[in-house]
Write a structure and sequence with these properties.
The chain contains four helices and 29 strands. It folds into four domains: about 5-130, no CATH class; about 205-270; about 295-380, Pantoate--beta-alanine Ligase, Chain: A,domain 2 (2-Layer Sandwich), CATH 3.30.1300; about 395-440. The strands form seven sheets. Strands 14-15-16-17-18-19-20-21 form an eight-stranded antiparallel sheet, with no helix packed on it. Strands 5-4-3-2-1-11 form a six-stranded antiparallel sheet, with helices on one face. Strands 6, 7, 8, 9 and 10 form a five-stranded antiparallel sheet that branches. The protein has helices at about 135-185, 280-310, 395-430, 440; strands at about 5-10, 25-30, 40-45, 50-60, 65, 80-85, 90, 95-100, 105-110, 110-115, 130, 185, 195, 205, 215, 220, 225-230, 235-240, 245, 255-260, 265, 275, 280, 320-330, 335-345, 350-360, 365, 370, 375-380. The chain is elongated. About 30% of the residues lie in helices and about 30% in strands. By secondary structure, it is α+β, with helices and mostly antiparallel strands.
């Protein structure tokens, strides 16, 4: 079998920084298929020196033992590609086996198999591969690149002018930087603290000349209005109409308050949000306390009405062994009714019991409830000598009443006589004193 050779070329671009370099390297491989000892050889071509050099050779067939590892890159059955990122050339045969050639150290890898790949897959050559006819195309491209290089040279000349202008600007910036460096220094006695400004240049403005942001030793202002500052008393002011955090502790607490732009204290208003203390809503607590206080007041009024109703119930039974009664009470729009009884157990012991109910239901005040009902029970125990009550019959009682009426009539007559005598006595005193004429005495008739 005659020698069969196949040269395949691909383009590997090199970055060049001089106008004198116009040649590019080319790589190719030769498959020697003679039926004897057969090789795959990798070559490097150079346009500048018009030379070719062999980089490596791999034997894939032995004249005695045949194919090595069943790898057969024969003519019309070989596929190839160049991996630019790895700088390697991959050569495949028709049975999914391949070897790679490392262009960095000019060495072949061992034979590998593509696992899981269908044998009918057609491998695609990398951009830049070409046959001998492609060299003419590459020469045309090189000529085009010459024109591009000339254009780049013109651009570089233009860039020289820009660089010169930038150099001038850099020189001006150096002056500005030097001026800024004079304002930045290390704090005396410290290696970690930088100081900006001095005793005269102590205000920093950021932004346009109109309404800039200003930073000074007191704080920060934006567009002429205070953002945050510390006054001479050490109080921290936030905002134009300030929220103020006091510097001193007053009565064991840290004070906060609000001021308007004139420094007068104004109320703090938590607007559109909720003020919480330890995760508890202050407004919620106020609303709850308000409701509890209202319920407590209503409950107290109800308790007063309950007590008034109980007071109206009988405590002892005087004229009978048992007595019962109904009482009522009212206080601050709360009304209660009560019912109770008293019983005379013996001459010395009386017992009583009762209860009252207030209308309107019970009232809860948060930690407890004022109920709408109450009951009571008690006893009376008499100590010492008991006095016997005076007992009168109906007739005796009537006689007693008649005697009382007679005594009442006599008492009224006696009172009239005493009044007449007192009047005559007064006139006799006037006669004795000469203040009354004798004719006046005739007016009064002695009885």
């Amino acid at each position: 079998m005659s020698n069969k050779e196949r040269y395949l070329l691909f383009f590997l671009p090199l970055v060049c920084f001089t106008n004198s370099v116009k040649s590019d390297p080319y790589y190719g491989f030769n498959i020697r298929d003679t039926g004897g000892d057969d090789f795959v050889k990798i070559f490097r071509f150079s346009n500048s020196s018009n030379s070719i050099s062999e980089l490596g050779a791999y034997q894939w067939n032995d004249a005695t033992s045949g194919l090595i590892n069943n790898f057969a890159p024969q003519q019309n059955e070989v596929f190839y590609h160049h991996n630019v990122s790895e700088n390697k050339i991959y050569i495949y045969d028709a049975s999914n086996k391949y070897i790679s050639f490392d262009l960095t150290n000019n060495s072949f890898s061992s034979i590998s198999t593509i696992n899981g790949t269908d044998l009918t897959v057609q491998r695609i050559s990398s951009t830049g591969w070409g046959k001998a006819a492609d060299i003419t195309t590459n020469s045309s491209n090189i000529s085009s690149n010459d024109n591009d290089i000339a254009s780049n040279a013109s651009n570089i000349s233009s860039n020289d002018n820009d660089i010169a202008s930038n150099a001038s600007n850099i020189s001006s910036n150096d002056t500005d930087i030097s001026g800024l460096q004079s304002l930045i220094s290390t704090k005396s006695g410290s290696t970690t603290t930088a100081r900006i400004g001095d005793s005269t240049k102590n205000v920093l403005e950021i932004g346009p000349t109109t309404n800039p942001t200003t930073i000074n030793q007191s704080g920060i202002s934006v567009s002429g209005g205070n953002l945050i500052k510390k006054d001479s008393d050490g109080n921290i002011h936030i905002g134009k109409n300030s929220f103020v955090i006091g510097n001193e502790v007053l009565n064991g607490a840290h004070p906060i308050w609000a001021e308007d732009e004139n420094g007068s204290k104004i109320p703090l208003n938590i607007y559109g949000s909720d003020l919480q203390i330890n995760g508890v809503s202050v407004q919620g607590q106020i609303d709850t306390n308000k409701s509890n206080i209202k319920n407590l007041g209503s409950g107290i009024a109800g308790s007063t009405a309950l007590t008034a109703a109980l007071t109206a119930l009988p405590q002892t039974s005087e004229e009978s062994k048992h007595s019962c009664g109904i009482g009522s009470g009212a206080y601050s729009s709360r009304y209660a009714v009560g019912f109770g009884c008293a019983s005379k157990v013996n001459e010395r012991v009386d017992i009583n019991a009762g209860g009252s109910y207030v209308f309107g239901g019970s009232k809860s005040y948060g930690e407890g409830t004022l109920d709408n009902g109450v009951i009571k029970a008690g006893f009376v125990f008499k100590l010492g000598q008991l006095k016997e009550p005076i007992k009168l019959s109906s007739k005796g009682k009537k006689n007693l009443e008649t005697k009382i009426e007679t005594l009442t009539t006599k008492n009224e007559t006696l009172q009239n006589t005493v009044s007449t005598l007192m009047a005559r006595l007064e006139r006799l005193e006037k006669v004795a004193l000469g203040d009354l004429k004798s004719k006046d005495l005739a007016v009064y008739k002695l009885q």
